[in-house]
Amino acid sequence: SGLANDIIYALASEQQNKLWIACRYGGLSCLDLKTNTFKTYKSSAQNNGLTNNDVLSLLIDRQKNLWIGTSYGLNYLSFSESQKQEPVFRKYTMDQGLPNNTIHALAEGTKGDIWLSTNKGLAKINRKNSAIANFRESDGLQSNEFSDGAVWKSSEGELYFGGIYGFNYFKPETI
Description:
The protein is mostly beta strands. The model has no long low-confidence stretch (mean pLDDT 94).
Protein backbone atom coordinates (compact mmCIF):
# COMPACT_ATOMS: atom_id res chain seq x y z
CA SER A 1 0.00 0.00 0.00
CA GLY A 2 3.08 2.26 0.14
CA LEU A 3 6.50 2.65 -1.38
CA ALA A 4 8.40 -0.47 -2.38
CA ASN A 5 11.45 0.74 -0.40
CA ASP A 6 12.48 3.86 1.50
CA ILE A 7 15.72 4.26 -0.45
CA ILE A 8 14.82 6.51 -3.40
CA TYR A 9 17.25 7.02 -6.31
CA ALA A 10 15.16 9.02 -8.78
CA LEU A 11 11.78 10.69 -9.30
CA ALA A 12 9.98 11.50 -12.57
CA SER A 13 6.57 12.86 -13.55
CA GLU A 14 5.13 12.91 -17.08
CA GLN A 15 2.00 14.75 -16.13
CA GLN A 16 0.24 16.11 -13.09
CA ASN A 17 -1.32 12.86 -11.88
CA LYS A 18 1.56 10.33 -11.67
CA LEU A 19 4.87 10.39 -9.85
CA TRP A 20 7.28 7.56 -10.74
CA ILE A 21 9.68 6.56 -7.97
CA ALA A 22 12.89 4.55 -8.45
CA CYS A 23 13.34 2.41 -5.34
CA ARG A 24 16.72 0.86 -4.55
CA TYR A 25 16.15 -2.92 -4.34
CA GLY A 26 12.37 -2.40 -4.24
CA GLY A 27 11.29 -1.95 -7.85
CA LEU A 28 9.42 0.91 -9.47
CA SER A 29 6.65 2.61 -7.51
CA CYS A 30 4.04 4.92 -8.95
CA LEU A 31 2.13 7.39 -6.80
CA ASP A 32 -1.26 8.39 -8.18
CA LEU A 33 -1.41 12.02 -7.10
CA LYS A 34 -5.19 12.20 -7.44
CA THR A 35 -5.95 9.25 -5.18
CA ASN A 36 -2.71 9.21 -3.11
CA THR A 37 -2.33 5.48 -3.77
CA PHE A 38 0.80 3.55 -4.74
CA LYS A 39 1.33 0.77 -7.24
CA THR A 40 4.64 -1.08 -7.44
CA TYR A 41 6.14 -2.90 -10.42
CA LYS A 42 8.83 -5.53 -9.94
CA SER A 43 10.83 -8.03 -11.89
CA SER A 44 9.04 -11.34 -12.25
CA ALA A 45 9.38 -14.77 -13.76
CA GLN A 46 6.98 -13.64 -16.46
CA ASN A 47 8.48 -11.73 -19.34
CA ASN A 48 6.43 -8.56 -18.77
CA GLY A 49 8.09 -7.22 -15.57
CA LEU A 50 11.22 -5.19 -14.92
CA THR A 51 14.67 -6.64 -15.59
CA ASN A 52 15.62 -6.05 -11.93
CA ASN A 53 14.19 -4.57 -8.71
CA ASP A 54 17.23 -2.35 -8.10
CA VAL A 55 16.02 0.80 -9.91
CA LEU A 56 18.73 3.46 -10.26
CA SER A 57 17.50 5.99 -12.84
CA LEU A 58 14.39 7.31 -14.58
CA LEU A 59 13.67 9.39 -17.66
CA ILE A 60 10.40 10.54 -19.17
CA ASP A 61 10.98 11.39 -22.82
CA ARG A 62 9.18 14.09 -24.79
CA GLN A 63 6.47 11.59 -25.84
CA LYS A 64 5.76 10.80 -22.16
CA ASN A 65 7.32 7.33 -22.35
CA LEU A 66 9.15 6.12 -19.26
CA TRP A 67 12.73 4.74 -19.34
CA ILE A 68 13.84 2.83 -16.24
CA GLY A 69 17.50 2.10 -15.56
CA THR A 70 18.27 -0.77 -13.19
CA SER A 71 21.38 -2.57 -12.00
CA TYR A 72 20.49 -5.25 -14.54
CA GLY A 73 19.27 -3.56 -17.71
CA LEU A 74 17.13 -0.81 -19.16
CA ASN A 75 13.34 -0.98 -19.29
CA TYR A 76 10.97 0.99 -21.51
CA LEU A 77 7.31 1.64 -20.75
CA SER A 78 5.30 3.43 -23.42
CA PHE A 79 2.81 6.03 -22.23
CA SER A 80 -0.12 3.96 -23.53
CA GLU A 81 1.20 0.84 -21.82
CA SER A 82 1.63 2.76 -18.54
CA GLN A 83 -2.13 3.37 -18.49
CA LYS A 84 -2.86 -0.37 -18.31
CA GLN A 85 -3.45 -2.30 -15.09
CA GLU A 86 -0.74 -4.85 -16.02
CA PRO A 87 1.71 -3.07 -18.35
CA VAL A 88 4.40 -4.83 -20.34
CA PHE A 89 7.96 -3.46 -20.09
CA ARG A 90 10.34 -3.68 -23.05
CA LYS A 91 13.81 -4.75 -21.99
CA TYR A 92 17.29 -3.75 -23.15
CA THR A 93 20.33 -5.59 -21.78
CA MET A 94 23.76 -6.59 -23.01
CA ASP A 95 21.93 -9.20 -25.10
CA GLN A 96 20.42 -6.33 -27.13
CA GLY A 97 23.77 -4.51 -27.39
CA LEU A 98 24.20 -2.41 -24.24
CA PRO A 99 27.83 -2.14 -23.08
CA ASN A 100 26.84 -3.08 -19.52
CA ASN A 101 23.64 -3.83 -17.60
CA THR A 102 24.09 -1.25 -14.81
CA ILE A 103 22.27 1.89 -15.97
CA HIS A 104 23.42 4.87 -13.88
CA ALA A 105 21.77 7.81 -15.66
CA LEU A 106 19.48 8.56 -18.63
CA ALA A 107 19.01 11.57 -20.91
CA GLU A 108 17.20 12.37 -24.14
CA GLY A 109 19.19 13.95 -26.96
CA THR A 110 17.90 16.79 -29.12
CA LYS A 111 16.85 14.33 -31.87
CA GLY A 112 15.01 12.06 -29.41
CA ASP A 113 17.73 9.43 -29.04
CA ILE A 114 18.14 8.01 -25.54
CA TRP A 115 21.59 8.27 -23.96
CA LEU A 116 22.62 6.26 -20.92
CA SER A 117 25.67 5.81 -18.73
CA THR A 118 26.86 2.43 -17.46
CA ASN A 119 29.86 0.74 -15.81
CA LYS A 120 31.37 0.16 -19.26
CA GLY A 121 30.79 3.45 -21.07
CA LEU A 122 27.94 5.39 -22.65
CA ALA A 123 25.29 4.08 -25.03
CA LYS A 124 22.89 5.74 -27.45
CA ILE A 125 19.62 4.10 -28.47
CA ASN A 126 18.29 5.25 -31.82
CA ARG A 127 14.54 5.67 -31.28
CA LYS A 128 13.72 5.05 -34.96
CA ASN A 129 15.27 1.58 -35.26
CA SER A 130 16.40 0.65 -31.70
CA ALA A 131 20.02 0.43 -32.87
CA ILE A 132 22.49 0.80 -30.00
CA ALA A 133 25.85 2.58 -30.35
CA ASN A 134 28.42 2.24 -27.55
CA PHE A 135 31.17 4.67 -26.52
CA ARG A 136 34.13 3.83 -24.27
CA GLU A 137 37.19 5.38 -22.71
CA SER A 138 39.08 4.67 -25.96
CA ASP A 139 36.59 7.05 -27.68
CA GLY A 140 37.57 9.86 -25.29
CA LEU A 141 35.43 9.25 -22.19
CA GLN A 142 36.83 10.21 -18.77
CA SER A 143 36.46 6.55 -17.78
CA ASN A 144 34.22 3.64 -18.68
CA GLU A 145 32.59 3.88 -15.24
CA PHE A 146 29.91 6.47 -14.54
CA SER A 147 28.02 7.50 -11.40
CA ASP A 148 24.39 7.11 -10.33
CA GLY A 149 22.23 10.07 -11.30
CA ALA A 150 25.13 12.13 -12.68
CA VAL A 151 23.53 13.61 -15.81
CA TRP A 152 22.50 17.10 -16.91
CA LYS A 153 21.18 18.59 -20.15
CA SER A 154 22.06 22.22 -20.89
CA SER A 155 19.66 24.71 -22.46
CA GLU A 156 21.74 24.38 -25.65
CA GLY A 157 21.16 20.62 -25.69
CA GLU A 158 24.61 19.50 -24.51
CA LEU A 159 24.61 16.37 -22.37
CA TYR A 160 26.88 16.06 -19.34
CA PHE A 161 27.56 12.64 -17.79
CA GLY A 162 29.60 12.35 -14.58
CA GLY A 163 31.88 9.46 -13.74
CA ILE A 164 34.66 8.37 -11.44
CA TYR A 165 37.30 10.61 -13.10
CA GLY A 166 35.28 13.71 -13.91
CA PHE A 167 32.65 14.23 -16.57
CA ASN A 168 32.13 14.22 -20.32
CA TYR A 169 29.98 16.66 -22.26
CA PHE A 170 28.95 16.72 -25.89
CA LYS A 171 26.25 17.78 -28.32
CA PRO A 172 24.41 14.54 -29.16
CA GLU A 173 23.61 15.57 -32.74
CA THR A 174 27.35 15.83 -33.52
CA ILE A 175 28.18 12.27 -32.40
